[in-house]
Amino acid sequence: MKFIVCSFILIFCCTLAENHCPDSILFHKDVCLLSESSSNIEYGERKKWMHYLSEIRRSRFKYNETCPESAAHCFESCFQRGCCLISSDANGIFIYCLRSVIEKDLQPFQYIRKDENMPIHRHTVVYQIIDHKLYREQQCTFPARCLGVEYFLLKLIHVLPNTEFVVNVCDYPLINKYSSKQAVFSFSKTADDLDIMYPVWSFWKGGPYIPIYKDGISRWDIQREVLIKAAKQWPWSKKSNKAFFRGSRTSKVRDRLILLSRQKPYLVDAQYTTNQATRSLDDTLGKEPADFVTLDYHCRYKYLFNFRGVAASFRFRHLFLCRSLVFHVGDEWKEFFYYKMKPWIHYIPVKEDLNDVEELLEFVKENDDVAKDIAERGYQFVLNHLTMDNVTAYWESLLKQFTDRLVYEVQKREGMIEIL
Protein backbone atom coordinates (compact mmCIF):
# COMPACT_ATOMS: atom_id res chain seq x y z
CA MET A 1 0.00 0.00 0.00
CA LYS A 2 2.86 2.39 0.90
CA PHE A 3 4.47 1.71 -2.48
CA ILE A 4 1.21 2.53 -4.29
CA VAL A 5 0.72 5.79 -2.38
CA CYS A 6 4.32 6.90 -2.92
CA SER A 7 4.24 5.98 -6.60
CA PHE A 8 0.97 7.87 -7.05
CA ILE A 9 2.44 11.02 -5.47
CA LEU A 10 5.50 10.96 -7.73
CA ILE A 11 3.58 10.09 -10.91
CA PHE A 12 0.95 12.74 -10.19
CA CYS A 13 3.60 15.44 -9.68
CA CYS A 14 5.44 14.52 -12.86
CA THR A 15 2.20 14.31 -14.85
CA LEU A 16 1.15 17.72 -13.56
CA ALA A 17 4.47 19.18 -14.61
CA GLU A 18 4.27 17.59 -18.07
CA ASN A 19 0.79 18.99 -18.64
CA HIS A 20 1.80 22.45 -17.50
CA CYS A 21 5.03 22.77 -19.48
CA PRO A 22 5.47 22.12 -23.19
CA ASP A 23 8.11 19.49 -23.96
CA SER A 24 10.48 22.07 -25.37
CA ILE A 25 10.51 24.18 -22.21
CA LEU A 26 12.60 23.58 -19.11
CA PHE A 27 10.83 22.41 -15.98
CA HIS A 28 12.23 24.56 -13.21
CA LYS A 29 11.25 24.71 -9.53
CA ASP A 30 7.79 23.27 -10.29
CA VAL A 31 6.97 26.01 -12.83
CA CYS A 32 7.90 26.78 -16.40
CA LEU A 33 10.82 29.12 -16.92
CA LEU A 34 8.98 30.39 -19.98
CA SER A 35 5.58 30.71 -18.37
CA GLU A 36 3.23 33.69 -18.53
CA SER A 37 4.68 34.92 -15.23
CA SER A 38 8.08 35.22 -16.91
CA SER A 39 6.92 37.82 -19.40
CA ASN A 40 10.37 39.41 -19.59
CA ILE A 41 11.88 36.22 -20.97
CA GLU A 42 11.08 35.71 -24.63
CA TYR A 43 11.01 32.21 -26.04
CA GLY A 44 13.37 33.18 -28.84
CA GLU A 45 16.08 34.26 -26.40
CA ARG A 46 16.29 30.72 -25.00
CA LYS A 47 15.52 28.73 -28.12
CA LYS A 48 19.17 28.44 -29.15
CA TRP A 49 19.92 26.85 -25.77
CA MET A 50 17.07 24.36 -25.92
CA HIS A 51 19.40 21.35 -26.16
CA TYR A 52 20.90 22.27 -22.76
CA LEU A 53 17.59 23.31 -21.21
CA SER A 54 15.96 20.08 -22.34
CA GLU A 55 18.87 18.07 -20.93
CA ILE A 56 18.40 19.75 -17.55
CA ARG A 57 14.68 19.09 -17.62
CA ARG A 58 15.13 15.41 -18.50
CA SER A 59 17.71 15.01 -15.75
CA ARG A 60 15.36 16.42 -13.15
CA PHE A 61 12.57 14.04 -14.09
CA LYS A 62 14.97 11.11 -13.78
CA TYR A 63 16.27 12.16 -10.39
CA ASN A 64 13.85 13.19 -7.67
CA GLU A 65 15.96 15.03 -5.15
CA THR A 66 13.49 15.50 -2.32
CA CYS A 67 10.41 13.81 -0.98
CA PRO A 68 7.36 15.51 0.61
CA GLU A 69 7.36 15.00 4.37
CA SER A 70 4.04 13.18 4.13
CA ALA A 71 5.60 10.61 1.82
CA ALA A 72 9.01 10.30 3.50
CA HIS A 73 8.06 6.96 5.06
CA CYS A 74 8.01 5.29 1.65
CA PHE A 75 11.53 6.19 0.61
CA GLU A 76 12.51 2.55 0.15
CA SER A 77 10.01 1.86 -2.61
CA CYS A 78 10.80 5.20 -4.23
CA PHE A 79 14.52 4.41 -4.08
CA GLN A 80 13.82 1.25 -6.05
CA ARG A 81 12.29 3.48 -8.73
CA GLY A 82 15.64 5.21 -9.13
CA CYS A 83 15.08 8.32 -7.05
CA CYS A 84 17.23 9.19 -4.07
CA LEU A 85 14.95 10.76 -1.47
CA ILE A 86 16.96 12.97 0.81
CA SER A 87 16.21 15.96 3.01
CA SER A 88 18.12 18.00 5.55
CA ASP A 89 16.60 16.10 8.47
CA ALA A 90 16.88 12.63 6.97
CA ASN A 91 20.56 11.79 6.75
CA GLY A 92 19.73 8.17 7.44
CA ILE A 93 17.94 8.11 4.10
CA PHE A 94 21.06 9.50 2.43
CA ILE A 95 23.18 6.72 3.89
CA TYR A 96 20.55 4.23 2.78
CA CYS A 97 20.86 5.59 -0.75
CA LEU A 98 24.63 5.20 -0.62
CA ARG A 99 24.29 1.54 0.36
CA SER A 100 23.97 0.83 -3.34
CA VAL A 101 27.51 2.20 -3.82
CA ILE A 102 28.87 -0.16 -1.15
CA GLU A 103 26.96 -3.12 -2.55
CA LYS A 104 28.28 -2.43 -6.05
CA ASP A 105 31.86 -2.17 -4.77
CA LEU A 106 31.53 -5.41 -2.80
CA GLN A 107 29.73 -7.35 -5.52
CA PRO A 108 32.96 -9.04 -6.76
CA PHE A 109 33.75 -10.08 -3.17
CA GLN A 110 30.82 -12.20 -2.03
CA TYR A 111 33.19 -14.45 -0.06
CA ILE A 112 36.58 -13.12 1.02
CA ARG A 113 39.34 -15.55 1.91
CA LYS A 114 42.38 -14.54 3.93
CA ASP A 115 44.67 -14.77 0.89
CA GLU A 116 42.39 -12.23 -0.85
CA ASN A 117 42.74 -9.79 2.04
CA MET A 118 46.50 -9.24 2.14
CA PRO A 119 48.79 -6.21 1.60
CA ILE A 120 49.94 -6.08 -2.03
CA HIS A 121 51.79 -2.77 -2.31
CA ARG A 122 54.16 -0.63 -0.27
CA HIS A 123 51.40 1.97 0.08
CA THR A 124 48.85 -0.45 1.51
CA VAL A 125 48.27 -0.72 5.25
CA VAL A 126 46.60 -3.58 7.12
CA TYR A 127 44.14 -2.64 9.86
CA GLN A 128 42.54 -5.01 12.35
CA ILE A 129 39.76 -4.52 14.85
CA ILE A 130 39.79 -7.18 17.55
CA ASP A 131 37.67 -7.01 20.71
CA HIS A 132 36.99 -3.32 20.04
CA LYS A 133 40.66 -2.40 19.80
CA LEU A 134 42.30 -0.97 16.67
CA TYR A 135 45.57 -2.39 15.36
CA ARG A 136 47.74 -1.41 12.40
CA GLU A 137 50.95 -2.46 10.72
CA GLN A 138 53.89 -0.48 12.10
CA GLN A 139 54.83 0.87 8.70
CA CYS A 140 52.69 3.59 7.12
CA THR A 141 54.21 5.40 4.13
CA PHE A 142 52.07 8.50 4.69
CA PRO A 143 51.50 8.90 8.46
CA ALA A 144 49.13 11.86 8.12
CA ARG A 145 46.92 9.89 5.76
CA CYS A 146 46.81 6.98 8.19
CA LEU A 147 45.81 9.41 10.94
CA GLY A 148 42.98 10.63 8.70
CA VAL A 149 41.71 7.07 8.33
CA GLU A 150 42.19 6.19 11.99
CA TYR A 151 40.16 9.15 13.21
CA PHE A 152 36.99 7.55 11.84
CA LEU A 153 37.91 4.01 12.83
CA LEU A 154 38.45 5.06 16.44
CA LYS A 155 35.06 6.79 16.50
CA LEU A 156 33.45 3.50 15.49
CA ILE A 157 35.61 1.07 17.44
CA HIS A 158 32.89 0.20 19.97
CA VAL A 159 30.27 -0.74 17.36
CA LEU A 160 32.40 -2.71 14.91
CA PRO A 161 32.85 -6.50 14.92
CA ASN A 162 36.21 -8.23 14.72
CA THR A 163 37.52 -7.58 11.23
CA GLU A 164 40.56 -6.80 9.13
CA PHE A 165 41.00 -4.90 5.88
CA VAL A 166 43.69 -3.43 3.64
CA VAL A 167 43.75 0.34 3.05
CA ASN A 168 45.54 1.93 0.12
CA VAL A 169 46.88 5.37 1.13
CA CYS A 170 48.32 6.39 -2.23
CA ASP A 171 46.39 8.51 -4.70
CA TYR A 172 45.67 5.94 -7.40
CA PRO A 173 43.72 2.66 -7.23
CA LEU A 174 45.56 -0.67 -7.27
CA ILE A 175 43.18 -3.42 -8.42
CA ASN A 176 42.30 -3.51 -12.11
CA LYS A 177 39.37 -5.72 -13.07
CA TYR A 178 41.73 -7.77 -15.22
CA SER A 179 44.19 -8.44 -12.37
CA SER A 180 43.95 -11.02 -9.60
CA LYS A 181 41.13 -10.38 -7.15
CA GLN A 182 42.28 -8.66 -3.96
CA ALA A 183 40.11 -6.75 -1.48
CA VAL A 184 41.76 -3.33 -1.21
CA PHE A 185 40.18 -0.08 0.00
CA SER A 186 41.03 2.99 -2.13
CA PHE A 187 39.53 6.47 -2.00
CA SER A 188 39.01 6.84 -5.76
CA LYS A 189 38.71 4.66 -8.83
CA THR A 190 37.40 4.28 -12.37
CA ALA A 191 34.98 1.76 -13.87
CA ASP A 192 37.98 -0.43 -14.73
CA ASP A 193 39.02 -0.83 -11.09
CA LEU A 194 37.84 -3.27 -8.43
CA ASP A 195 39.08 -1.26 -5.44
CA ILE A 196 36.53 -0.73 -2.67
CA MET A 197 35.95 2.98 -2.12
CA TYR A 198 36.25 4.54 1.31
CA PRO A 199 35.96 8.22 2.38
CA VAL A 200 39.32 9.83 1.72
CA TRP A 201 41.65 10.52 4.66
CA SER A 202 41.53 14.27 4.07
CA PHE A 203 38.07 14.54 5.60
CA TRP A 204 40.17 14.70 8.77
CA LYS A 205 43.91 14.87 7.99
CA GLY A 206 46.57 14.34 5.34
CA GLY A 207 45.11 16.43 2.51
CA PRO A 208 47.16 18.04 -0.28
CA TYR A 209 49.94 20.25 1.03
CA ILE A 210 50.24 23.80 -0.23
CA PRO A 211 52.12 26.59 1.60
CA ILE A 212 48.99 28.43 2.73
CA TYR A 213 47.64 25.21 4.33
CA LYS A 214 50.48 24.02 6.55
CA ASP A 215 48.62 20.87 7.62
CA GLY A 216 47.25 20.21 4.14
CA ILE A 217 43.70 20.72 2.94
CA SER A 218 41.98 18.67 5.62
CA ARG A 219 39.52 19.03 8.55
CA TRP A 220 36.35 18.99 6.48
CA ASP A 221 34.39 20.13 9.52
CA ILE A 222 36.42 23.36 9.69
CA GLN A 223 36.55 23.89 5.92
CA ARG A 224 32.76 23.63 5.80
CA GLU A 225 32.38 26.48 8.27
CA VAL A 226 34.91 28.67 6.46
CA LEU A 227 33.31 28.13 3.06
CA ILE A 228 29.75 28.59 4.28
CA LYS A 229 30.79 31.93 5.78
CA ALA A 230 32.52 32.95 2.53
CA ALA A 231 29.43 32.01 0.51
CA LYS A 232 27.39 34.43 2.62
CA GLN A 233 29.96 37.18 2.04
CA TRP A 234 29.86 36.54 -1.71
CA PRO A 235 26.24 35.90 -2.71
CA TRP A 236 25.44 35.18 -6.35
CA SER A 237 24.76 38.84 -7.14
CA LYS A 238 28.26 39.88 -5.97
CA LYS A 239 30.28 37.10 -7.57
CA SER A 240 32.51 37.79 -10.58
CA ASN A 241 30.86 36.73 -13.82
CA LYS A 242 33.81 34.66 -15.01
CA ALA A 243 35.20 31.16 -14.58
CA PHE A 244 38.02 30.48 -12.12
CA PHE A 245 40.63 27.79 -11.58
CA ARG A 246 43.87 27.50 -9.62
CA GLY A 247 45.85 24.30 -9.36
CA SER A 248 48.99 22.48 -10.37
CA ARG A 249 49.52 20.58 -13.60
CA THR A 250 48.80 17.11 -12.23
CA SER A 251 46.93 16.32 -15.44
CA LYS A 252 47.34 17.71 -18.95
CA VAL A 253 43.55 17.75 -19.23
CA ARG A 254 43.76 21.12 -17.49
CA ASP A 255 45.97 22.71 -20.19
CA ARG A 256 43.17 23.80 -22.48
CA LEU A 257 41.46 25.92 -19.83
CA ILE A 258 44.77 27.58 -18.94
CA LEU A 259 45.37 28.43 -22.60
CA LEU A 260 41.81 29.71 -23.01
CA SER A 261 42.37 32.00 -20.02
CA ARG A 262 45.45 33.46 -21.70
CA GLN A 263 43.51 34.06 -24.91
CA LYS A 264 40.30 35.33 -23.30
CA PRO A 265 41.04 36.59 -19.78
CA TYR A 266 37.64 38.30 -19.65
CA LEU A 267 36.02 34.84 -19.83
CA VAL A 268 38.26 32.69 -17.62
CA ASP A 269 40.85 33.28 -14.90
CA ALA A 270 42.76 29.98 -14.88
CA GLN A 271 46.42 29.64 -13.92
CA TYR A 272 48.83 26.95 -12.85
CA THR A 273 50.48 26.92 -9.43
CA THR A 274 53.39 24.74 -8.36
CA ASN A 275 53.48 21.45 -6.49
CA GLN A 276 56.18 19.14 -5.17
CA ALA A 277 56.85 17.81 -8.68
CA THR A 278 57.31 21.22 -10.35
CA ARG A 279 60.78 21.49 -11.90
CA SER A 280 60.61 24.19 -14.58
CA LEU A 281 58.31 26.55 -16.49
CA ASP A 282 57.31 23.57 -18.61
CA ASP A 283 55.24 22.48 -15.62
CA THR A 284 53.26 25.73 -15.78
CA LEU A 285 52.99 25.92 -19.59
CA GLY A 286 55.79 28.44 -19.99
CA LYS A 287 54.48 31.06 -17.55
CA GLU A 288 55.53 31.96 -14.04
CA PRO A 289 53.37 30.06 -11.53
CA ALA A 290 50.45 31.88 -9.98
CA ASP A 291 50.18 32.58 -6.27
CA PHE A 292 48.24 30.11 -4.18
CA VAL A 293 44.75 31.11 -3.10
CA THR A 294 42.60 29.80 -0.28
CA LEU A 295 39.53 27.72 -0.97
CA ASP A 296 37.25 30.47 0.32
CA TYR A 297 38.79 32.88 -2.22
CA HIS A 298 37.09 30.79 -4.91
CA CYS A 299 33.72 31.96 -3.59
CA ARG A 300 34.23 35.33 -5.32
CA TYR A 301 33.50 33.68 -8.69
CA LYS A 302 30.28 32.32 -10.18
CA TYR A 303 31.85 29.50 -12.15
CA LEU A 304 34.41 27.10 -10.66
CA PHE A 305 36.20 24.34 -12.54
CA ASN A 306 37.02 20.90 -11.19
CA PHE A 307 39.44 18.56 -12.98
CA ARG A 308 40.80 15.14 -12.19
CA GLY A 309 44.33 15.10 -10.84
CA VAL A 310 46.25 11.87 -10.37
CA ALA A 311 42.83 10.47 -9.47
CA ALA A 312 39.67 12.24 -8.27
CA SER A 313 40.33 15.81 -7.17
CA PHE A 314 40.26 16.74 -3.48
CA ARG A 315 38.82 20.15 -4.35
CA PHE A 316 35.52 18.87 -5.74
CA ARG A 317 33.41 18.80 -2.57
CA HIS A 318 34.79 22.13 -1.37
CA LEU A 319 33.75 24.08 -4.47
CA PHE A 320 30.03 23.45 -3.96
CA LEU A 321 30.02 25.18 -0.56
CA CYS A 322 30.92 28.46 -2.27
CA ARG A 323 27.37 28.40 -3.64
CA SER A 324 28.99 28.80 -7.04
CA LEU A 325 28.30 26.76 -10.16
CA VAL A 326 30.72 23.85 -10.51
CA PHE A 327 31.94 22.79 -13.96
CA HIS A 328 33.04 19.16 -13.59
CA VAL A 329 35.40 18.05 -16.36
CA GLY A 330 35.24 14.38 -17.33
CA ASP A 331 33.41 11.60 -15.52
CA GLU A 332 35.95 8.78 -15.31
CA TRP A 333 37.15 9.18 -11.72
CA LYS A 334 34.82 8.71 -8.76
CA GLU A 335 34.73 9.02 -4.99
CA PHE A 336 32.10 7.31 -2.87
CA PHE A 337 29.62 10.21 -2.91
CA TYR A 338 29.91 11.08 -6.62
CA TYR A 339 27.25 8.55 -7.57
CA LYS A 340 24.48 10.56 -5.89
CA MET A 341 25.49 13.86 -7.46
CA LYS A 342 24.08 14.23 -10.94
CA PRO A 343 25.11 16.26 -14.00
CA TRP A 344 22.75 19.13 -14.87
CA ILE A 345 21.20 18.87 -11.41
CA HIS A 346 24.14 19.57 -9.09
CA TYR A 347 26.84 20.64 -11.57
CA ILE A 348 27.59 21.30 -15.24
CA PRO A 349 29.30 18.35 -16.99
CA VAL A 350 32.16 19.25 -19.34
CA LYS A 351 33.78 17.00 -21.93
CA GLU A 352 37.34 16.03 -21.05
CA ASP A 353 38.67 17.61 -24.26
CA LEU A 354 36.93 20.88 -23.26
CA ASN A 355 35.57 21.35 -26.79
CA ASP A 356 32.26 22.52 -25.34
CA VAL A 357 33.60 24.81 -22.62
CA GLU A 358 33.12 28.19 -24.33
CA GLU A 359 29.59 27.33 -25.38
CA LEU A 360 28.74 26.17 -21.86
CA LEU A 361 30.07 29.39 -20.36
CA GLU A 362 27.99 31.40 -22.82
CA PHE A 363 24.95 29.29 -21.94
CA VAL A 364 25.17 29.87 -18.19
CA LYS A 365 25.75 33.60 -18.66
CA GLU A 366 22.66 33.94 -20.83
CA ASN A 367 20.62 31.74 -18.48
CA ASP A 368 21.70 33.13 -15.13
CA ASP A 369 18.62 31.91 -13.26
CA VAL A 370 19.22 28.35 -14.43
CA ALA A 371 22.90 28.56 -13.46
CA LYS A 372 22.05 29.90 -10.02
CA ASP A 373 19.52 27.13 -9.45
CA ILE A 374 22.01 24.35 -10.30
CA ALA A 375 24.60 26.01 -8.06
CA GLU A 376 22.06 26.08 -5.22
CA ARG A 377 21.18 22.41 -5.65
CA GLY A 378 24.85 21.45 -5.52
CA TYR A 379 25.37 23.59 -2.43
CA GLN A 380 22.38 22.13 -0.60
CA PHE A 381 23.43 18.57 -1.41
CA VAL A 382 26.93 18.94 0.00
CA LEU A 383 25.79 21.13 2.90
CA ASN A 384 23.09 18.75 4.08
CA HIS A 385 24.53 15.37 3.26
CA LEU A 386 28.31 15.38 3.04
CA THR A 387 28.68 15.92 6.78
CA MET A 388 31.24 14.43 9.15
CA ASP A 389 28.47 12.36 10.74
CA ASN A 390 27.54 10.91 7.37
CA VAL A 391 31.16 10.19 6.49
CA THR A 392 31.43 8.28 9.77
CA ALA A 393 28.18 6.45 9.05
CA TYR A 394 29.46 5.45 5.61
CA TRP A 395 32.58 3.96 7.19
CA GLU A 396 30.40 1.99 9.61
CA SER A 397 28.13 0.62 6.89
CA LEU A 398 31.10 -0.24 4.66
CA LEU A 399 33.02 -2.11 7.35
CA LYS A 400 30.02 -4.07 8.59
CA GLN A 401 29.05 -5.18 5.09
CA PHE A 402 32.67 -6.01 4.26
CA THR A 403 33.08 -8.06 7.45
CA ASP A 404 29.95 -10.07 6.64
CA ARG A 405 31.82 -11.41 3.60
CA LEU A 406 34.89 -12.68 5.46
CA VAL A 407 34.92 -16.48 5.49
CA TYR A 408 37.64 -16.90 8.08
CA GLU A 409 38.16 -15.98 11.72
CA VAL A 410 40.20 -12.83 12.21
CA GLN A 411 43.24 -13.32 14.43
CA LYS A 412 45.83 -10.75 15.38
CA ARG A 413 48.73 -10.71 12.95
CA GLU A 414 52.34 -10.52 14.01
CA GLY A 415 53.93 -7.08 14.24
CA MET A 416 50.69 -5.14 14.65
CA ILE A 417 50.60 -2.09 16.94
CA GLU A 418 47.60 -0.80 18.84
CA ILE A 419 46.25 2.59 17.74
CA LEU A 420 44.86 4.64 20.60
UniProtKB/TrEMBL annotation:
Domain spans labelled Glycosyl transferase CAP10: 159-409
Signal peptide: 1-17
Molecular function via GO: UDP-glucosyltransferase activity; UDP-xylosyltransferase activity
GO BP: positive regulation of Notch signaling pathway; protein O-linked glycosylation
The entry's keywords: Signal, Transferase
PANTHER family, sorted: KDEL LYS-ASP-GLU-LEU CONTAINING - RELATED, PROTEIN O-GLUCOSYLTRANSFERASE 1
Name this protein carries in UniProt: Protein O-glucosyltransferase 1
